[in-house]
Amino acid sequence: MDYCRKLLPRFGALALALALPCLAKAEKLDLDRTDPVPANQPIPVMDFFRPEILKNPTVNLAGTHVAAIVAADQDHTSLMVYDLKTQKIESYSSRGDSDVTIVQWLTDDLLTFTINYQKGGNYVFCAGHPGILGQSYPLLQNVTGALIVVPPNDRTHPLASVGPHTSNTGQYGEVMTLDAELNRGALLDLSGNGALVGGQALADVEEANLHHIAARHPVMETPNGFDLGYWATKEGKLAFAVSSTNGVLTLQRLEGDKWVKCPENLDEMDVIESGDNPGEIIVLGQRSEGKHRPLEILNAADGVSHGNLLEDPHYDFDGRLYRDPVSRTILGAFYDRAIPTVVWFDEGMKKLQSSLEKLPVFKGLVVRILGNNADRSGILIEAFSDTHPSGYFWADLKTKSFGPIKNSRPWIDPARMQPMSMIKYKTRDGHALDAYFTLPAGASKQNPSPLVVLPPTWYQINRTTWGFDPEVQFFVSRGYAVLQPNHRGSAGYTGMFPTADEWDFRKMYEDVTDATKTFLALGFADRSRVAIVGTSFGGFLALSGAAYEPGLYQCAVAISPAALDLAKYIQENKYNQYSDSTYSRLVYKLGDPKADAAKFDALSPLRHAEQIQAAVLICTGEYDPTFVTKEAKELVSIAKKNRATSDTIYFLNEAGGVRHLANKVELYSKIDAFLAQNLGRAPAPAGTP
Question: Is the distance from CB of 180 to CB of 157 less than 8 angstroms?
């Protein structure tokens, strides 16, 4: 039984019906069903990959309303506002291939949200009032960017960064103060299923935008460079930025109306947030004798340390800080280690966390406080585990009442999910890293299953940790054990290795190899039936494994691989060097391919494709770089000489992976068939295909 259903629904369940059209395609995928399929039936592919019914909830300061992103149909998301007292639901959706992606409360009765087109690209920044969401209006249209901060003493004037080369900016990016209360100049009808930006003349869009720009902040002019991020002080004033010039990252601080370079070496540290005091910046600190890197407070102007905010003896910090919604004072930090962890610097929040974790309903779950109202009498809570998708709850400390808001994936039966375990494996240079494994029902040393290795999708910016992973549970439901190895490029480990190892892709693939061999030695998986599957950088590692370890993997699947020929990848990015920082950063960190051809040859699986003995399947999308799709076909053509079952898949309207549900269901169905053809299955437990 769903663990949310064990609780009295004090505030009721949030209905799926959000006054959205029900298309035939959605009916075919059975999106109206929100209950798990019966235990004697196979779990459909769709159930693992359909959008969460609710995510990223946030509460207003009064504690009267929760706003969240909710599933609209098979591919899209909408905005929902839930009145905690009346239990009424109000929704807002946009038309076309668009999604509501981020929501932020400004005041108790005003919020901002962004609309994203085609799973990427340009945005519309909007504002709306609960009760009349249908009359929401655009603040900025046809832009890229992000909300930086809601000033605590001027909440209707948030700061937003806007990318360069739009209708609002010139060569450089810019920070603007928006007037969220103004409604004149809103030329588009965004109400209900109103039209999206696209058909309107650019001049009209720019004219509409001007009505909501209250102030423009000093531009950080970086010739042949880029602005990568901005931070504001606790009081909500623009203070810091990171720029990239010729691949070198620089911290800059705003002094008056000019940006001034700071002395911090961003090759050795990473900016996390601004501090609580003027002039302070919080960074992931420098390496020191192989120790893990702490969260350190620095005076940005001179780099002098003000001490450590958080120091974990086993992991670098990889997470985010929690600020009080009223004062913006830093109260705690969420970060990933062996399991997701929370540390509170505030005694009141520490006691509250302890009380929540003792509640029987949260036994075995990770509990996170996502938000609170102004006086901390109302608490928004997330709880999850390796077998339980995230569930959201509301606690009223004044009335001592508590209840569920919604389970994010009610169609998943936790009883049919398999638990995740962790092992430590040693790299060939002697360091111990984490790898997570999940076994299918019935797998044992006496009954070993085929194995799917899933390396992390990105490097440096994420790591695998303990928790619910729908891709993992999909493969496990089909009879495969799954291994998720972190490598030296995964977040949380950089303090253990030299700086250069953060860009040593060959060592990262070797780490994955070492983890795979360590797990195979345990005896739970059949070493003659091993596949490696990855997306983006994980796809690059999957193809590297196939090329450089021809006897280890029998299958390799790469979804939108980041690169197949690294030298070619760098050369192709050179054409965008004045609009994107990728080229200069790669050359700065990896060198010039023309000057060190042997190095790039060794890092490029395409150049070693003749060694591949595994069956290879590569998926690319319409908006992936053309050369990547071309190289995928070339690699598969070579691999086919050894394994005829190698092939490519191509999807329209996709890039950087597969995001549309129908395409995702088709892709994983084909991957499942591909693995079954080339690996065979373990004896299927009851209720699986």
Answer: yes
Asked whether the beta carbons of 569 and 606 are under 8 A apart, the reply is no
- Tally of helices (H runs) and strands (E runs) in the chain: 12, 35
Residues 6 or more apart whose CB falls under 8 angstroms from that of 436 comprise: 420, 421, 422, 423, 464, 465, 466, 483, 484, 485
| Domains contained in the chain, number | 1
Q: What is d(CA 301, CA 253) in angstroms, rounded to the nearest whole number?
A: 8
Q: Which domain holds residue 670?
A: 418-565+604-679
**What would the two tokens of residue 158 be?**
């948030």
Mean pLDDT score of the chain: 87
What is the token pair recorded at 610?
């003749």
- In a 13 Å sphere around the CA of 612, the CA atoms on its Cβ side amount to 34
Are 54 and 408 in contact by the 8 Å Cβ rule? The answer is yes
3-class state of residue 106 by DSSP: strand
**CA end-to-end span of the chain:** 22
Q: Name which of 276, 237, 255 is nearest 159 in CA terms.
A: 237
Cβ proximity of 105 and 58 under 8 Å: yes
Query: For residue 345, which of 328, 333, 358 has the smallest C-alpha distance?
Result: 333
Are 79 and 89 in contact, with CB atoms under 8 Å apart?
no
- 186-217: pLDDT as tens digits: 444 443 333 333 334 444 555 666 778 999 99
Q: Indicate whether 474 belongs to any domain.
A: yes
CA 555, CA 576: separation in Å to the nearest integer? 34
- Strand, coil or helix: 196: coil
Cα-Cα-Cα-Cα dihedral sign, residues 79, 55, 50, 14: negative
58 falls within a domain = no
Q: What string of DSSP letters covers 133-173? A: GGG-EEEEEEE-EEEEE--TT-TTS-EEEE-SSSSS--SS-
Q: Would you say 552 and 517 are in contact if contact means Cβ atoms under 8 Å apart?
A: yes
Q: State yes or no: pLDDT of 21 exceeds 70.
A: no
pLDDT (0 to 100) of residue 579: 80
Beta strands in 203-329 (DSSP E): 213-216, 225-232, 238-245, 248-255, 258-261, 270-274, 280-284, 295-299, 305-310, 319-323
Q: Is 308 helix (H, G, I), strand (E, B) or coil?
A: strand
Residue 665 maps to which CATH number?
3.40.50.1820
Tell whether 425 is covered by a domain: yes
Distance CA 199, CA 398 (A): 51
Please tell me the predicted confidence (pLDDT) of residue 12.
30
Coil, helix or strand for 602?
helix
CA angle 685, 687, 689 (to 5 degrees): 80
- The reply to whether 520 falls in a domain is yes
- Contact (CB, 8 A) for 492 and 486: yes
For residue 54, which of 361, 405, 369, 320 has the smallest C-alpha distance? 405
Torsion of CA 510, 516, 521, 527, to 10 degrees: -120
Q: How far apart are CA 162 and CA 155, in angstroms?
A: 19
| SS3 assignment, position 675 | helix
Distance of alpha carbon 15 from alpha carbon 72, whole angstroms: 11
For residues 621 and 201, what is the distance between their CA atoms, to the nearest angstrom? 30
Token pair belonging to 440: 């299918």
pLDDT in tens, 500-548: 898 999 999 999 999 999 999 999 999 999 999 999 999 999 999 999 9
Query: What is the model's pTM?
Result: 0.90
